[in-house]
Amino acid sequence: MTILESAETILNASIKKSKAHREALQNAKKQVPSKRTHAHSMMGRPYPDEFSVQRIRDLTGDIVDNGEYELLRPGVILSSKRHPISGMELHTTSGVLVEDFGGDRYTATALDGVPHGDGTFHPCAGRREIGRLSMELGKPDISIVKRNENVQFIGSEVYMNNPFTGYCEGTCGPHSKLRFPSDDPSEGSIKWIQARWAYMGQGFSERPDDSVCGSAVWNENGQVLGFLRYAEKLEPLKDWCFMVASDSIMKFLD
């Protein structure tokens, strides 16, 4: 018998054994009626065709995204102060970033979402205070919240300067994560670090070359947010830049 014939014989035997095991499992399930779950009473893992199809549920009245975000953006949950007597709080949704002629930054939200005092919190009362009510626009039912200086909002301006692209202005984007292989035997084979996205304007991806990698990106307060890794050239993230977050660098230095 050749090596190829021997391998074919072993493969056929393995297929028959797997088929017999599946038939035995199905018979056992018929004899012992039970609620169908991913964990069976018999040893072994469930087969892929035994998993039910589950779709991602859209956010509805009984499913609310009340997670806390370090970087705010339009569409996250905001809360008022608690009522001094009932202790109740009202929730609303963050609007867009607004800037006046003096350069002050604000967040727009619903007027009726800030009824108990002028404090505005995320994601609920008693947690992080993001700002205080500054202006009320009664007819359109809009309130303008003056953001605290330590609160970052997607849409805030970011800046970069290097010998290859020159001075650039962009828009702060969301947090992300970057994975890379680890050579530390005491850790896993893959490590994850914090990263960020920033939109640097139409056509930016056609300008940089490899020499811009490592360029610092900072905000209006001079705080370095990250270091450029690459600029995406394909849709739908064209002209978005991916950068390693500066706080990840600090963790390596600790």
Question: In words, what does this structure look like?
Answer:
- Helices cover 15% and strands 33% of the residues.
- It has 254 residues and is α+β, with helices and mostly antiparallel strands.
- Among the domains are: 71-152, Thrombin, subunit H (Beta Barrel); 155-182 and 189-251, Thrombin, subunit H (Beta Barrel), CATH 2.40.10.
- Strands 8-9-10-13-12-11 form a six-stranded antiparallel β-barrel. A five-stranded antiparallel β-sheet has the order 3-4-7-6-5, with no helix packed on it.
- Strand 6 and strand 7 form a beta hairpin.
In short:
Among the domains are: 71-152, Thrombin, subunit H, CATH 2.40.10; 155-182 and 189-251, Trypsin-like serine proteases (Thrombin, subunit H), CATH 2.40.10.10.
Observed structural traits:
alpha+beta; 254 residues; Thrombin, subunit H; globular; 6-stranded antiparallel beta barrel; 5-stranded antiparallel sheet; 2 helices; single chain
Shape: globular
How far is the first residue's CA from the last residue's CA? 63 Å
Report the CATH topology name of the domain at 155-182 and 189-251.
Thrombin, subunit H
As laid out across the biggest beta sheet, the strand order is 8-9-10-13-12-11
Poorly predicted ranges (pLDDT <50, ≥5 residues)?
A: 32-46, 48-57
Note the beta-strand portion. 25-35%
Q: How confident overall, as mean pLDDT?
A: 71
Count the helices. How many? 2
- CATH A-level architecture of the domain at 155-182 and 189-251: Beta Barrel
Cα gyration radius (Å): 27 Å
User: Order of helices and strands, N to C?
Assistant: HEEEEEEEEEEEEEH
Percent of residues in helices: 10-25%
List how many beta strands DSSP finds. 13
Specify the biggest β-sheet: 6 strands, antiparallel, barrel
Classification by helices and strands? alpha+beta
CATH class label of the domain at 155-182 and 189-251: Mainly Beta
| The CATH homology group name of the domain at 155-182 and 189-251 | Trypsin-like serine proteases
By oligomeric state, this entry counts as single chain
